[in-house]
Amino acid sequence: MPSTSTRPPGHHSQRAAANGFCVFNNVAIAAAHAKQKHGLHRILIVDWDVHHGQGIQYLFEDDPSVLYFSWHRYEHGRFWPFLRESDADAVGRGQGLGFTVNLPWNQVGMGNADYVAAFLHLLLPLAFEFDPELVLVSAGFDSAIGDPEGQMQATPECFAHLTQLLQVLAGGRVCAVLEGGYHLESLAESVCMTVRTLLGDPAPPLSGPMVPCQSALESIQSACAAQAPHWKSLQLQDVTPVPTSPSTHSPEGRPPPLLPGGLMCKTAASALSSLLDQPCLHPAPPLCPAVALTAPDITLVLPPDVTQQEGSALNEETEAWARPLESLAQDETLTALGKLLYLLDGMLDGQVSSGIVATPPLAAAATLDVAIQRGLSHGAQRPALPPGCCVWPWDSWTGPQISPMTGRTLRSCICPAMHVDGHVPVPQGDGWVGHCVVLNGAFLIWVLEGCWRQCQVGLQQRLGSHSIPACGLWPVNTLPPLPLLPGLRGVSRALRLCMCPGRRILWLNIRGKEAAALSMFQVSTPLPVVTGGFLSCILGLVLPLAYGFQPDLVLVALGPAHGLQGPHAALLTSMLRGPAGGRVLALLEEDSTPQLAGILARVLHGEAPPSLGPYSVASPEDAQALRYLRGQLERQWKMLQCRPQTR
Asked: Where is composition skewed (Low complexity) in this entry (predicted)?
């Protein structure tokens, strides 16, 4: 996965004319060479320079073997190169109709959320359907923060995320070729972020709120509408074109263009210098994933830098965590739990980048429960937290002793689960099962499933005047006195989750019975049956939620009947590396461990996931489920929006 620092740049150069500081069209020449010498039939060119690469467009606009994507500052034709064919409705011609994709930015100040939204809702659906054999990036960094030409707001780590999203394509064959960039400090940091990602390092977490602006959504919607007649992946979406004109846009609080030499320009330059000095832009040496197995006779083929963990947590600590969970009482499950705790602590302490743990089938749900608790409690002793903010009220046990986290405090985690119950699991008791999740420390959300009528009377007797619906929100400050709760097995065990302010869990059940959003933090969707539906679910639901949530940790739970083939599980795991800065822990059921663990270890190490095979369009049922969940959730999770709000 190479990167080339070519000068002069090339994407404006045309067949018989130099243009825009460009003499030779480097990326176009590389694409032609790959076709002629190596016999490639599908090449994707991604141009994230802030100027339209009209030279590349002119060279390939009638060629269906090259899919060209460009976003660029346009401002309704008022920005150089002032071309009508830079607009969204310029989609190629002849046999190349639909293979030119223009995304014009009609205002300055586009940031991380806008760029990621463009990839998730426009570029990547087309790219997966196109199935390229090679990805070439016209990597212009005048679209980064601080550049006087672009005047955009995307920070350097955003380009690491864009690169990582492209690496799941073409077997990881991605080549970045330098184009523009006129702020030397921002350029240097952005190039470094891109190169480190090409070398396999996880992308640092994105900074700032993940809320795309209305102007960006209008541009994305217009581009989707122009491309929908030519691509199956867009035809099941609502892609009504948005009328755009200068009068329809408002600045939405985005910064106005800065005049060179002015006071505002100098102030912005000082703030930018401070931003570029942040530690996240100068990460420590890269860490490697680890795999923890319980069966000693399992042989795995792992990348050289992936370690097979032998360590385990202390017996006393493991037994303390397992004591309230009946399914963890046996020796085999205790061994798995000890390895889980040891590996998770290594991830949260910054010793391991990511991990895979094999669990016995009957203990999968309980192990996930412990992983969530341990992750959230790892930073529970921060001085800023008020006393007593952690609640561990089951029976007389007060919970294990928690050491303060030595690295970045874990604020939140996201849990995509495949066939491990629908919610955070609690062991069965009295014929029913309880589930809960914490919302910002303000509400305990819970569901009681199973023999609800049978247990409702008993619960009501114990909780007195408190009303007990079958599911809902319960303000934490109105919970009944804790001494009443130990007798309620499900409810008391539900309180094991830390209710500290700012601690959050986003639960995604990707094998639910139906599409449902119990709350903005508890989402369930059926597992799509075809490749197109699976990709739509990942790009249109899972990743927008994950990027909007900005978790510190991702737990991927693949239960005994998760139903995913190896390439699908690998793609899901690989793409979830981005939102959490690479901190992904996969929990696997032992019977599927050897082959699946090897595949996941390779993608967590930075290798590209295997191909999903030929593209097949999503079923109407899968498309309807996605539309329903978007409609339910997009007001809370803005990254789900792929069209502007009605004005």
From this structure: 239-250
Helix (H, G, I), strand (E, B) or coil at 239: coil
> Has residue 411 got a pLDDT over 70?
no
Q: Please check whether the two domains, 3-281 and 290-640, share a CATH topology.
A: yes
Alpha carbon distances (Å) from 68 to 121, 171, 306, 543: 16, 19, 36, 24
**Distance, CA of 37 to chain centre:** 36
- The architecture CATH gives domain 290-640: 3-Layer(aba) Sandwich (3.40)
Per the DSSP assignment, residues forming a β-bridge with 150 are none
- Reference 433, options 591, 327, 587; nearest CA is 327
Cα–Cα distance for residue pair 125/37, rounded to 1 Å: 28
For residue range 483-527, list pLDDT tens digits in order: 333 333 333 333 333 333 334 678 888 877 889 998 888 888 999
pLDDT, tens digit, 9 for 90 and up, residues 370-386? 887 777 776 432 212 22
Query: What is the C-alpha separation between 53 and 103, in angstroms, rounded?
Result: 12
pTM above 0.70, yes or no: yes
Alpha helices in 206-330 (DSSP H): 214-227, 232-235, 263-276, 315-322
What are the C-alpha distances in Å from 530 to residues 301, 441, 634?
Answer: 29, 38, 25
CATH architecture label of 3-281: 3-Layer(aba) Sandwich (3.40)
Q: How far apart are CA 389 and CA 497, in angstroms?
A: 11
Q: What is the pLDDT of residues 540-598, one digit of tens each?
A: 999 999 999 988 889 898 877 778 888 999 999 999 999 999 999 998 887 666 788 88
**Residue 601 in 3-state DSSP?**
helix
Q: Which amino acid is at 328?
A: L
Domain boundaries of the chain, sorted by first residue: 3-281, 290-640
Q: Which pLDDT does position 596 carry in this prediction?
A: 87
Strand positions, DSSP E, 510-622: 516-519, 522-524, 553-558, 584-589
Contact 336, 588 (CB under 8 A): no
Q: What interhelical angle do 156-166 and 184-198 show, nearest 10? A: 30
Residues 6+ apart with CB under 8 A from 159: 48, 139, 141, 144, 190, 193, 194, 197
Helix or strand (DSSP H, E) at 548:
helix 543-549
Quote the strand ranges of 269-320, DSSP E: 290-292, 307-309
Give the residue numbers annotated as catalytic, written as ranges.
Answer: 12
